[in-house]
Amino acid sequence: MTKLDPFADDAASISIGKLTIENGADQVTLYGSLDITRDQAGLTHARQMKALLDQIIEVLEAKPLSATVAADVIPKIVKNPFS
């Protein structure tokens, strides 16, 4: 697993199994799926997820947090030039 510093940039991305974790300055996004099977591979995946979640929690607990992160700005709707 490649190192990911939670909330450090808007570019880093790692995978654990078929689960993708994308870094962002305001959020960490997880998508896909991860099977934690009852074998060595499952144990490895579980430990990787735990390590990542521990890092995320550590960063979140390090500084005071706002109640919410500002929502994305609603995009401006423009007239279709082809119609």
How is this structure best summarized?
By secondary structure, this protein is of the alpha+beta class. Helix content is 28%, strand content 17%.
What's the SSE blueprint?
Layout: E1 13-16, E2 18-22, E3 29-33, H1 40-62
Describe the 3D structure.
The chain is of the alpha+beta class and 83 residues long. The chain has a domain at 13-62. Helix content is 28%, strand content 17%. Strands 1-2-3 form a three-stranded antiparallel sheet, with helices on one face. The longest helix is centred in the middle third of the chain and has 23 residues, at 40-62. It is flat. Keywords: Plasmid.
Note the main attributes of this structure.
1 helix, 17% strand, plasmid, 83 residues, three-stranded antiparallel beta sheet, alpha+beta
Widest sheet: strand ordering: 1-2-3
End-to-end C-alpha gap: 48 Å
Helix content: 25-40%
Tell how many strands the DSSP assignment holds: 3
Order of helices and strands: EEEH
Strand residue content: 15-25%
Helix/strand-derived category reads alpha+beta
User: For the CA atoms, what is the radius of gyration?
Assistant: 17 Å
Largest sheet: 3 strands, antiparallel
Low-pLDDT regions? none
Using the alpha-carbon principal axes, give the shape.
flat
Keywords: Plasmid
